[in-house]
Design a protein that fits this description.
HTH_TetR; single chain; 8 helices; DNA binding; mainly alpha; 197 residues; Tetracycline Repressor, domain 2
Length: 197
């Protein structure tokens, strides 16, 4: 069965958004060029406005796509750890502060990659950025036991800040130590599960 025009257009749109999600984490908001995103997605610059009203509209969708990626990674870790006794909180912390995010900026949480730039964006992009921050705090809160839920913002700040500091040190023993120390500290303070080994 041949793909319909609408399904091809949807596939094209998704490829452009995925390329932009990769670009915002790698180069920041300011480093996202419409021409480069379209080229990376395999299309010409001229086709951009058939899919998006503006560059800001693309950035909003790219941020949403990048946020879904890290949520999917946390869910993947949770599935792998199912039956081990690991809590949702442990899975989230281990997924968010994974060593694999030290050597590459294009993966991992977009908030950690973009936080310093968020206040400087247009109202639409800033609003979408704020929504993603609230979403991350809510995701952290949902994994915590009731007695610790008031600490969700503090824990979220620790996750984001730790990933930023570790990346500043690079994929080095020092960078990995920053991630490891925070993982251990957060789990010691807030995790109530006792995973099987």
């Amino acid at each position: 069965m041949k793909p319909t025009f609408n399904s091809r257009k949807k596939d094209t749109h998704e490829r452009i958004v995925a390329a932009a999600a990769h670009a915002i984490r790698s180069h920041g908001y300011a480093g996202v060029s419409v021409a480069e995103v379209m080229k990376k997605a395999g299309y010409t610059h001229g086709g951009f406005y058939a899919h998006f009203k503006s560059r800001d509209a693309l950035l909003v969708e790219a941020l949403d796509c990048a946020s879904q990626d890290i949520a999917a990674e946390a869910a993947r870790v949770a599935r792998l750890r199912a039956g081990t006794g690991a809590s949702e909180f442990r899975c989230l912390v281990e997924a968010y502060l994974a060593d694999q995010y030290l050597g590459t900026l294009e993966n991992g949480c977009p908030i950690a990659a973009l936080a310093a730039e968020m206040p400087r964006q247009s109202q639409a992009v800033r609003g979408a950025s704020m929504a993603r921050v609230h979403q991350l705090i809510a995701a952290v809160r949902s994994t915590l036991p009731e007695s610790y839920r008031a600490m969700a913002s503090v824990i979220t700040g620790s996750l984001v800040g730790t990933l930023q500091l570790a990346r500043a040190l690079g994929d080095t023993p020092q960078g990995r130590e920053v991630l490891s120390a925070t993982r251990e500290s957060l789990l010691r303070l807030y995790d109530t599960s006792v995973p099987a080994h």
